[in-house]
Amino acid sequence: MELWYTEKQTESYGITAKVKETYVHEQTDFQQLAMIETEEFGTMLVLDGMVMTTDKDEFVYHEMVAHPALNTHPNPEQVLVVGGGDGGVVREILKHEKVKRVVLVDIDGKVIEYSKKYLPNIASGLDDARVEVHVNDGFMHIHDHKNEYDVIMVDSTEPVGPAANLFTRGFYQGIYEALKEDGLFVAQTDNPWFKADLIQSVNRDVKEVFPVVRVFWANVPTYPSGLWTFTMGSKQHDPLAVDETAIPERETKYYTPRLHKAAFVLPKFVEDLVK
Ligand code: SAM
């Protein structure tokens, strides 16, 4: 008998993948967690029925959360990741030699535990000496830390359940205060096909808090519509002012110095959303 996993991306549309094996399917204190083996994408982490990451395409999202932000800040020593318990963003951050300390704050310890067990290539950086892992609400952490971080990365689930308040103006204000005077942040901000309203409201809120706001995108096949956006808010440094010829080549599969500014060129219908 064939078993297929389907993510309902809207009430009338979804994507589906053939399942070879189910390793974990449980309700944690915060969300429904599944770790499944698919034929096409390898091991897949699913939270509350939404694909979080897969072995095959994880590199796109994790590289694009980490590298555009770190290559925009001239001296990113102290970095915070909110969410990101699978460890993929941390793995990419550790490729930057200037980074001295990475703090990861995920609300759900089970994501961290199962990612280490079933997604070892993604979670590989979590035990690095530069990394501190905290199981806590990112909203609380942000509000308890002032003027501490150079770069903050928000690698959260969608704005439902535990992540609902990570997409609010109050959260962006907290991020502003947790950053040092030339700090910047980046957040995953969903897709323009089914979540145009979210992209618009995040853009409006971030613009009320940060003087420099830029949106960029990447192609992530297992995320709804495949076209994923990220929003960067910065106190000073502009990703579009970076001299990309000075960015060192690092071991990546999606991001390159050539792509740094190109990723900020938006399709017209997305440009219109964030004008
Ligand atoms: N890349 C994924 C995506 O965009 O679909 C998200 C990655 S997944 C690792 C996101 C993580 O955010 C989950 O591990 C979840 O536990 C965590 N999370 C959700 N709400 C949170 C909160 N309030 N504070 C900290 N972490 C949170």
TrEMBL record:
Residue ranges annotated for the PABS domain, each copy included: 2-235
UniProt xrefs under InterPro entries: PABS (IPR030374), PABS_CS (IPR030373), SAM-dependent_MTases_sf (IPR029063), Spermi_synthase (IPR001045), Spermidine_synt_N (IPR035246), Spermidine_synt_N_sf (IPR037163)
Binding site for S-methyl-5'-thioadenosine: Q31, D106, D137, G138, P162
Taxon lineage: Bacteria, Bacillati, Bacillota, Bacilli, Bacillales
A cellular component annotation (GO) from this entry: cytosol
Protein origin, superkingdom: Bacteria
Record has Flavoprotein as a keyword: no
Pathway the protein acts in: Amine and polyamine biosynthesis; spermidine biosynthesis; spermidine from putrescine: step 1/1
Keywords for this protein: Cytoplasm, Polyamine biosynthesis, Spermidine biosynthesis, Transferase
Oligomeric form and interacting partners: Homodimer or homotetramer.
Keyword Cytoplasm part of the UniProt annotation: yes
Active site, per annotation: D155 (proton acceptor)
One Gene Ontology term of the molecular function aspect: spermidine synthase activity
Residues that bind spermidine: H62, D86, D155, S156, T157, E158
Annotated PANTHER family: SPERMIDINE SYNTHASE, SPERMIDINE/SPERMINE SYNTHASE
CDD domains: AdoMet_MTases (cd02440)
Top class in the EC scheme: transferase
Organism expressing this protein natively: Paenibacillus pasadenensis
Similarity remark: Belongs to the spermidine/spermine synthase family.
Protein name: Polyamine aminopropyltransferase
Gene that encodes the chain: speE
GO biological process, one term: spermidine biosynthetic process
